[in-house]
Amino acid sequence: MTRVHQAHCLKMLLPGLVLAFMVCLFGCNGGNGGGGGGDETPAAIHFESDDALFAYLKDQYASSLQPDTMQTLRTEGDAISAAPGESGGGKSYSSTNLQEAGVDESDLVKTDGRYLYIAGENRVAIVSADPAGPMYEAAVIKVDGNVDAMYLFGNYLAVLYTPSNGEPPIWIYDDAGEDPPREMEDDSEIPGSPGDDVIKIGIGMPYWIPPKQETGLLIADIGIPHAPSIVRDIRIDGILISSRLNGGRLHLVAQFMPDLPPIEIWYDGSEADKNMLTARNQAALDAMTIDDFIPSYNIADESGNVVEKGRLIPTENFIRPVTPGGGSIVSVITLDMATPSGEMARTGLVADIHHVYASTQSLYLAATIAEYPSYRDGGPDIRWVPPAFKTQIYRFDLNQTPVTLVAEGTVEGELLNQFSLGEYENVLRVATTTGFAWDGSSLNHVYCLEPEGDKLAVIGAVNDIAPGERLYAARFMGPRGFLVTFVQIDPLFTLDLSDPRTPLIIGELKVPGYSTYIHPLGPDHLLTLDRDVALDGETPLEQGIQLSIFDIRNFADPRLKFSTIIGDRGTWSEALYNHKALTFLPEQNLMALPVDLYENTITPENPWDYGDLTFNGLYVYRVSAEAGFDLLGRLPMETSGKYYSGWMRGVFIDDFVYAVNADMVKKAGIADTSEPFETLKIQ
Questions:
Q1: Bigger pLDDT: 248 or 35?
Q2: Residues 6+ apart with CB under 8 A from 244
Q3: pTM
């Protein structure tokens, strides 16, 4: 009997089983069987043949391909200060909010100051947004899939999309006719007692990556926006992890999982049954060929005809890290946007990846490594021990074609997001959290890493920051760093990183609530996007959105200078968790963010009571370190009574602001954002 095995199913399994299955299936610490000789550097180990590559891939997937016992299973128990875009006509306009100046990131809306390029389902709408005239839909680019994001470079638009080629294959497992156990809490009792051994895994089974999922990249010539033309349409195997546009070169990072045969994961507890199922699993894997393990690609011309196809990564371009890091394949595809019809540069890394960060010189790929204690047979009263986490980091040189792995390193703890990393003067700064806030064991750390040969070596660190709290926001800006941790109040830490060998915490400020995003407001101030909180006894409850400005001229004594709160409990903005939803026009001190506003129409009886939905749309502010937040107005968007709206962006062009989503654009003068607004519904 087989069952669909999707992400939510794994969450229902016994934590120890999930771990065991991941390790058994993927064997991330398998031996180096098949690892190649040939042209090797310490950091980038290549493969001398298909046979060597195939052997290594199978080794990574199946070095311990064993089922788990059914007996065990059934036991109960820099952005606002960055330069804006400029068109040939001298217009000023906003661009995507970036982590690093000079390193562009994809988004759902792009503009050149004359037109808006708007992502939608199966299309990109090109809307004339010249402030001097009315808006109109100039053209549409049809896409065979859902548009995920875009880049705009000169006369070319790069459209990232998920092809509409039907549902990808799903993970299935053979459960030997038994039902999986009920869900158990983290502190549930499980049989066995902790052993001294530690099982080390990478991501393990990245079950959120559908096998054979594809990523599409459509390049369009929009030199004549009213008549765009397709240059090429590229499809690669794998799910897109992230991308960057740096120095005119577009880098895509995709992760590929092969379509593995069904795996039997339960057995009756006997050694004979375990060995039998292990042999079956191994035989199923041995029946696969190397082409089953390797992503492929195809390229279609402007007429949709496939003109090129084959293996995405040539064998000689595959590399493996010194420390085995998992069995999935990360593809780094590089395309020169000045000549987008030219050759793609391709690198393959045999490893699992969680986060992507890029500076102007380097690309960093980071993976979370979980370390679980193993268990010996023992009494039933031993409780599950939560895992410890490390972060494995791979540094690639963006100046080489294709990009080349030059160093790797490991730090304790796990990352929050891409802002947990930042490079300055060849030193990578990394902010991590170890332990857990729920049991008071959490600690936060900042590491400084520098390449030493093939290694990213820790040359300095600040450890054990804010015991019992976890990281909610981080930002590295030049020789300085900023952290926000939270349990009941929000400590903002300032760090002096000018000497990476002796990094220091310089200042600390505690304020109510917590920040999820930190933004430079010139050299002497920070703007943060926060959550206001109210305490119910010892429990903090999220309320409205809070915008804050901090004075950091005295770096050892940061001060809260201005703050304003939007709405009551239930109020939400995509900008809380996606920096690209914030929009800035620095030269006019303008900021916009989407808001789903919930307000208390009557005094709430309890701090956990939600307000009523009163507004969906764009908030527009003039922001300065001298005057704080001046709300210029709001542009409502029609959301058909949804509790929370979909994506929305603000765009500034000259003296106008545009509220944009996939279906509509609204336009208003910045000096007067009152109704009536000019509205364009996208067909």
A1: 248
A2: 103, 104, 105, 250, 251, 356, 358, 363
A3: 0.84
